[in-house]
Specification:
single chain; 93 residues; mainly beta; 3-stranded antiparallel sheet; 0% helix; globular
Length: 93
């Protein structure tokens, strides 16, 4: 699977995990140079506290377009060290 934004592959893996129709990519499969930590956090009742990244590709930013669970709850341990996308990020195979 590939995650593409602004015509750039930002993550690629054959081992994504699908949860609630989102592909979670292993953290080592993301291209770190396009990911900037940000302060945004949200809470999921069963997954826990999510943290976000802003994507930056060729001078364009996509705020909070990627998220991950630094310390997922027990029910979501399978997505520990994985990153998911939204906000215009295209997921293809």
């Amino acid at each position: 699977m590939k995650a593409i934004w602004n015509n750039q592959v930002i993550a690629e893996s054959d081992n994504t995990i699908v949860v609630e129709n989102n592909h979670y990519f292993p953290k080592e499969s993301i291209k770190q140079e396009f990911f900037k930590e940000c302060a945004t956090q949200t809470t999921c009742p069963w997954k826990g506290l999510a943290s976000y990244y802003t994507l930056e590709v060729d001078g364009k930013q996509n705020p909070d377009a990627a998220w991950y669970y630094p310390e997922p709850k027990p029910a979501a341990m399978n997505i520990a060290n994985h990153v998911a996308f939204w906000k215009g990020v295209k997921i293809t195979d």
